[in-house]
């Protein structure tokens, strides 16, 4: 089969189209013919990072996968050849540890992440364990379905499960990339007053159309004052942050007493200093939302199926253009997802 292999870590010149052996499903594995695979910023981080033990060999990136079942292992359950499917971000979880049994599969100590510890979807075929797949409804395209498992499902996790957003609450969303633009839509479905913070004036109209009640444009990254003005000086009940340390203090200044902060991403990796008294005296809660469980994936698929959420696919590109797609994501040249089509 054709696949994009990370020949060496670093720049996009390390991505090579190669002929590699088509995997065969064993045990509970399901062989998926890949029809679409989204490009996530995590793909760029894995490609750029130095090689380390535990990575799949050959290393094929891609964890946002939709396709059809090509074959099933002898012990695979729930799927048959021809089924339309979409993956979580993982190829394997143990299913029996405390994390797996409490809907926190992303924290399973034995998990294998697609495109990292397991070969990913930047290929014509990929193996995924049966309990990391969900059925893709007929009215959702492969391109749209491929990104439900990551940006839509993770946003569902952040807003509904981790953030516990309730009707009438005010919610701040930061980082209007793949995660942020879907979190705006999901917060809207909760009946919240939705505030989106962005550096780009060009995104205002699109964010309002997606459901933002107020868009705070902060070209310098200082959005807290605008957020407080939008809430009558009170601050938001919940902040869903997909940027990380670079905006943490603005996030802290944006939330009300007893507010909830949900961390979903970390772009820069910089360290921050924090006065802990500012956290406990204001009774703030800080949590994180990592990845998507299969239950969350299935719930997100229902929202897409009934039209409540629109997966934001900005463009599709052939697998041969993977390096171009990576460069565009690195340069922040896209708002929605780029989806690769083998």
Summarize the topology.
Elements: E1 2-6, E2 15-19, E3 29-38, H1 41-48, E4 64-72, E5 84-87, E6 90-92, H2 98-101, E7 112-113, E8 125-129, E9 133-135, H3 142-146, H4 148-162, E10 170-174, H5 178-189, E11 193-198, H6 204-210, E12 214-217, H7 224-230, E13 236-241, H8 248-254, E14 255-263, H9 276-280, E15 285-288, H10 294-305, E16 313-318, H11 322-330, E17 337-341
Parallel strand pairs: 10-11, 10-13, 11-12, 13-14, 14-15, 16-17
Antiparallel strand pairs: 1-2, 3-4, 3-8, 3-17, 4-5, 5-9, 6-7
Helix pairs in contact: 4-5, 4-10, 7-8
Count the beta strands.
17
Within the CATH hierarchy, at the fold level, what is the topology of the largest domain?
Answer: Quinone Oxidoreductase, Chain A, domain 1
Strand content: 25-35%
Largest sheet: 7 strands, mixed
Runs in which pLDDT lies below 50 for 5 or more consecutive residues are none
> What's the CATH architecture name of the largest domain?
Alpha-Beta Complex
* N→C terminal distance: 10 Å
Mean pLDDT across all amino acids: 95
Describe this structure in words.
- The chain has 342 residues and is α/β, with parallel strands linked by helices.
- It has two domains: 2-147 and 311-341, Quinone Oxidoreductase, Chain A, domain 1 (Alpha-Beta Complex), CATH 3.90.180.10; 152-288, Alpha-Beta Complex (Quinone Oxidoreductase, Chain A, domain 1), CATH 3.90.180.
- Helix content is 27%, strand content 27%.
- The protein is built from eleven helices and 17 strands.
- The strands form four sheets. Strands 3, 4, 5, 8, 9, 16 and 17 form a seven-stranded mixed beta sheet that branches. It has a six-stranded parallel beta sheet with strand order 12-11-10-13-14-15, sandwiched between helices.
- Helix 4 (148-162) crosses helix 5 and helix 4 crosses helix 10.
- The chain is globular.
């Amino acid at each position: 089969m054709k696949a994009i292999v990370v020949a060496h870590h670093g720049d996009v010149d390390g991505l090579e189209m190669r002929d590699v052996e088509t995997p065969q499903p064993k045990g509970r594995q399901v062989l998926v013919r890949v029809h679409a695979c989204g490009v996530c910023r995590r793909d760029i981080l894995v490609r750029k990072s130095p090689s380390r033990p535990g990575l799949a060999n050959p290393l094929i990136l891609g964890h946002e996968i939709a396709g059809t079942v090509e074959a099933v292992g002898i012990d695979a359950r729930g799927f048959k050849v021809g089924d339309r499917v979409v993956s979580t971000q993982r190829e394997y979880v143990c299913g029996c540890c405390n994390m797996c049994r409490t809907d926190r599969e992303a924290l399973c100590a034995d998990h294998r992440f697609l495109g990292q510890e397991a070969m990913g979807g930047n290929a014509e075929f990929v193996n995924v364990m049966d309990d990391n797949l969900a059925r893709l409804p007929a009215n959702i395209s492969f391109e749209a379905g491929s990104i439900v498992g990551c940006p839509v499902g993770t946003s569902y996790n952040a807003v509904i499960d981790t953030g516990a957003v309730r009707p009438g609450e005010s919610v701040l969303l930061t980082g209007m990339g793949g995660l942020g633009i879907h979190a705006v839509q999901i917060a809207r479905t909760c009946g919240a007053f939705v505030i989106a913070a962005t550096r780009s004036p060009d995104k205002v109209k699109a964010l309002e159309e997606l459901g933002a009640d107020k868009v705070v444009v902060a070209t310098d990254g200082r959005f807290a004052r605008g957020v407080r003005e939008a809430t009558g000086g009170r601050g938001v009940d919940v902040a869903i942050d997909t940027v990380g340390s670079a905006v943490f203090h603005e996030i802290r200044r944006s939330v009300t007493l007893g507010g909830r902060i949900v961390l979903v991403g970390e772009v820069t990796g910089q360290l921050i200093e924090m006065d802990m008294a500012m956290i406990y005296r204001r009774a703030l809660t800080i949590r994180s939302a990592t990845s998507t469980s299969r239950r969350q994936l299935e719930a997100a698929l229902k929202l897409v199926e009934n039209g409540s959420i629109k997966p934001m696919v900005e463009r599709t590109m052939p697998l041969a253009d993977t390096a171009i797609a990576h460069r565009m994501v690195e340069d922040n040249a896209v708002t929605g997802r780029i989806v690769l089509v083998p």
